[in-house]
Design a protein that fits this description.
Oligomer: homodimer
Shape of chain A: globular
Strand order of the largest sheet of chain A: 3-6-7-9-10-12
Number of helices of chain A: 7
Strand content of chain A: 25-35%
Largest interface: A-B, 52 and 52 residues
Structural class of chain A: alpha+beta
Radius of gyration of chain A: 18 Å
Largest sheet of chain A: 6 strands, mixed
Order of helices and strands of chain A: EEHHHEEEEEEHEEHEHEH
Distance between the termini of chain A: 47 Å
Chain lengths: 205, 205
């Protein structure tokens, strides 16, 4: 079972995550390329960490907690809570001393990338990161095509502003192709986005 | 009511946070200096953000979600979840392009700072951040004395290793004084730790 919460992301419960810890189960998923973008990125980040290349983590899902029970002799149980909208991006960390900050989004569309699953708050956050000379981008995955792109935040913001000015609510596939870096899907790491970050750093120097 | 969860931190539910949105309530707390270190840091970070000085946020509390209900025509409700131990530090972000990463801890002790409310995972994370040339530290608050110190991660790790080698399980107050930067408590920002970060950056150059 896969839950979808407000922003359309899949949400896996603890039990499901446990199943995935089983290596056979994982292997099947793996060979089928059935992994979500989040799973691919988590594996990539684990690889980067294990190789001392970068320290980048996904932030925990923001939750509004309303009610907590404290049973005797056992762990506190959250009995009522709600998903909150993220006010920042999902991933951040450090690479060669530089601050790295990004959001990851996937679509089944093949001709364009809809802007609807990004939020105003996240775009604002990206602009703030750029103002502080951090490196910010969005990883876009066209899941039906198995194509992954890294689009710099400054470019994304241009398309966002076009939408705010009454323009189209998506980025066409060819716009993505001409403005972004295509990232080949590999085995280890799965999504080697640091190669793109190297190019972004080099360009800025 | 204040809840304490496994690592001894206070946890405020949504209802309580709502009350704090009331400005009178906030003012009373404020003048009494009854704010927690977390509240002081959140205000400080909001101030930094509003002045375009830095983009630093507290990460959401990590939660293990076990059961979610999807009532018709209303938001998804988390019905069973547990607090997870954090594997990284609580705060991170960007300042002048540099990656900033820290943990914040307070004690009512007046003669020493116990190491027990830090976790092995967090210390490892700090070492990883240092390896990537990030800026990492811990903000220590002696709440009874109203004194706040910034201790660089490299120093903290020295005391941690002393403990692992069988030495004392705390850092004496005078050790804190001689190895760390004292941060004056102000009005706005409350805890101006970026002044210390400036010194750390300068020292490294």
């Amino acid at each position: 079972m896969v839950f979808h919460y407000p922003n359309g992301k899949k949400f896996a419960t603890a039990k499901q995550n446990k199943n995935k810890g089983n290596s056979n189960f994982k292997k099947i998923i793996y060979s089928n390329r059935g992994m979500t973008l989040e799973e691919d990125l988590n594996e990539t980040n684990e690889y980067y960490l294990s190789m001392n290349l970068a320290v980048i983590h996904k932030k925990p899902t923001p939750i509004q907690i309303v009610d907590v029970h404290y049973p005797k002799r056992s762990a506190a149980v959250i009995k009522e809570a709600y998903f909150k909208q993220a006010s920042t991006t999902d991933y951040n960390g450090v690479y060669k001393g530089r601050y790295i900050d990004f959001e990851a989004k996937e679509t089944k569309n093949t001709s364009s990338f809809p802007l609807q699953n990004l939020h105003e708050h996240q775009i604002q956050h990206m602009q703030q990161v750029l103002d502080q000379h951090g490196i910010s981008f969005v990883i876009l995955r066209f899941s039906s095509l198995e194509e992954i792109y890294v689009m710099e935040a400054s470019i994304l913001i241009t398309f966002w502003n076009r939408m705010l000015a009454g323009g189209r609510k998506s980025i066409t596939k060819s716009e993505v192709e001409t403005t972004s870096y295509k990232v080949p899907i590999g085995y280890q790491p799965r999504i080697d986005y640091l190669r793109v970050v190297d190019q972004i750093i080099e360009k800025a120097q």
